[in-house]
Design brief:
Layout lengths: L2 H13 L7 H5 L1 H8 L30 E3 L4 H7 L8 H16 L2 E5 L5 H17 L2 H4 L13 E4 L14 E6 L2 H11 L5 H32 L1 H4 L14 H7 L15 H9 L7 E7 L11 E4 L5 E6 L5 E5 L2 E4 L7 E5 L1 H6 L9 E3 L7 E8 L6 E2 L12 E2 H10 L6 H4 L9
Parallel strand pairs: 1-2
Antiparallel strand pairs: 2-10, 3-4, 4-5, 5-12, 6-11, 7-10, 7-12, 8-9, 8-11, 13-14
Bound molecules: 2-oxoglutaric acid (AKG) and fe (ii) ion.
Length: about 425
Amino acid sequence: MGALAQESHVWASIATGNGFLSPAFNAGAFAALLQSSTLNLKDYVWTEQERPLVAYNQFENDDLIPVIDMGPLVPCLDDALQSPAALSERGVCVAAEMARAGREWGFFQVINHGVSADIIRDMEIQARIFFEALKPEEKRRILRDGSATKPMGYACGGAGTPLKSDLPWIESLHLPSAAEDMEAYAWKVWQDGNKEFRRVVKEFSREMGKVSMRIMEVLMGELLAREEEGVTARTAAGETVEIGGIGQKRRRKGDEEKVEAKVDGRGGGARTEVLVGEQRRNSVVRFNYYPPCPQPSLTLGLGAHSDPHLLTLLHQDLVGGLQICKDGLWMAVRPMPGALVVNIGDALQVWSNDHYKSVEHRAVCNSLRSRLSMGFFLTPMDDATICPLKLSSPHYKPFTWKEYREQMYARRPRGKSNLLHYRIHDQTQ
Ligand SMILES: O=C(O)CCC(=O)C(=O)O
Ligand SMILES: [Fe+2]
């Protein structure tokens, strides 16, 4: 018997209940799922190449991961989203630091970000109530349709997804951030609609959304300032200069007056608003709950992937398990109380023509404690065209967000493979 088969065998014997399961595991929705469906523990054994060699709490060199204090940005950028205001000197430095982290890491943590500690705490409580206090059949009222190209609702260890092997050791809940769409899910789960859950998700989504726009303002502002040449626009004085990407789309709509990209490099938030629409309508909140796992070295909570959206903001609890791939090596990200993890998504990589890079990351399980992470994914509208803002030497062919999302959910995302479909290969290399 090969090593993999042997380990699969170990898991299969665990599944038949020979005493290895922890009480926490036995009690969970996961155990209920495995007992009631065709899913089997051996389907959670990942290939040797993909299994985590770095454990959930094995932190090394994680102090190199940039941590950015957004304090100096918060007051100015609140106004900047309406009308660009001058940043303080310190603010300019922080913006440059953030842009550098986006370029060099595609990943950083932010503190003093402006999302209130109260709402994060309330959201953690509500998410834990959902995952831990509801009965499996209650959560299954909003089980994801495995074939859907726009996955929303609840998934548990592969149930509710099209996956058949290398199953993720996770329960997850995807909700639309738009209030009325999100509420429909709460009404399906709870007969009384659970007012507190709806209040907290709305507030969490609104606050995380606002911070994500501030970060976009900084990242896009820095990019536009650098790339004045190929990405200019109609100036405030009415002078029309060459414009690409988003601007072109607006111009086609005969909406010239609103093309307000600032040639001084500001206006990144205004440009982002064009892509993400009013109130960031297409954005998503996602809750990830990783139950304790009897064999964490054989499986993954989430396999290596890059997030497809523009930007992800993630709150993780203090257990640990998030890992990023930097220069081909996996690094565990030490949880920082109060911090939010920010990572660049594929859409921003394309929009910035590889100036910012989406980062591969994964979630590793542990055998002792459940872990909760809560994310906000800043998402373009379905019909938004994603293409490099820079007109000269684009690295990608244009595509709509809907097209990208659908091709991504039709296949299993492995690393950053989705981006390659749209990459323009330089024939001279
Ligand atoms: O739970 C984590 O740390 C990672 C979550 C994640 O990568 C995601 O939701 O896309
Ligand atoms: Fe992710």
